[in-house]
Design goal:
Layout (H helix, E strand, L loop, with lengths): L5 E5 L9 H11 L3 E4 L6 H12 L7 E4 L8 E4 L11 E6 L10 E4 L16 H7 L6 E4 L5 H9 L4 E4 L1 H4 L4 H11 L14
Parallel strand pairs: 1-2, 1-8, 2-3, 3-4, 4-5, 5-6, 6-7, 7-8
Helix pairs in contact: 1-6, 4-6
């Protein structure tokens, strides 16, 4: 099974510098290997329609939906308290060292750095602290990863990739920002995930 790695972009339509689909498409062109659809405040129909639109700009099988309902996709990312759904091909969970990982394929570890997207959410673990948690599954570093240097440090510490929201969503040039981050955190699957590139 292929688990998320490289640059994983989390959506946030409220902070996006432009229409969400356009920002996500630019990030994918820049090298984002996976996309996590958050937007959990939207109603079901609106969120499902957004998932369908994002699937048209994200590489096949690389859209992950936050929460237990995959909205027609094949992967979910669960918060610590979310129930484990059945029949889902790929399941991730936010992990802080205590959550049950039965049936889970990968985890996010956060916050690695202080983050402006979720101020007060922490304290920041730092790269060493994240690595010392010894996640028992492939892990993505999350939180405050806003530069290639930070992304590279996370990968050097053992992360399979980096999960980034604010740095890409708020960027005036999300394609360039994604390219810089992806170059420091290459997709370990070794594939070029950009749409139209084989």
């Amino acid at each position: 099974m292929v688990t998320p790695g490289g640059l994983v972009v989390l959506t946030d339509r409220r902070s996006a510098a432009g229409p969400l689909e356009r920002v996500v498409a630019a990030a994918v062109r820049g090298g984002a290997a996976w996309v996590v659809l958050r937007e959990r405040d939207l109603g079901y129909a609106e969120r499902a329609a957004l998932a369908t639109r994002l699937e048209s700009v994200v590489p096949p099988g690389r859209l992950i939906v936050a929460g237990p309902d995959p909205l027609g996709a094949t992967a979910v990312h669960l918060a610590g308290a979310d129930p484990l759904p059945s029949g889902i091909a790929l399941v991730g969970r936010s992990w802080h060292g205590t959550e049950d990982l039965s049936g889970v394929d990968y985890v996010t570890v956060s916050p690695v750095y202080p983050t402006s997207s979720k101020p007060g959410y922490g304290p920041a673990l730092g790269v060493t602290g994240a690595a010392e948690m010894r996640a028992p599954l492939p892990w993505l570093a999350l939180g405050g990863i806003d530069s290639a240097a930070r992304a590279a440090a996370c990968v050097a510490a053992g992360a399979a990739g980096v999960a980034v929201m604010g740095a890409v969503m708020r960027s005036p040039d999300p394609e360039r920002t994604a390219r810089e981050l992806a170059s420091a955190a290459p997709d370990p699957a070794g594939r070029d995930s950009r749409v139209g590139v084989r």
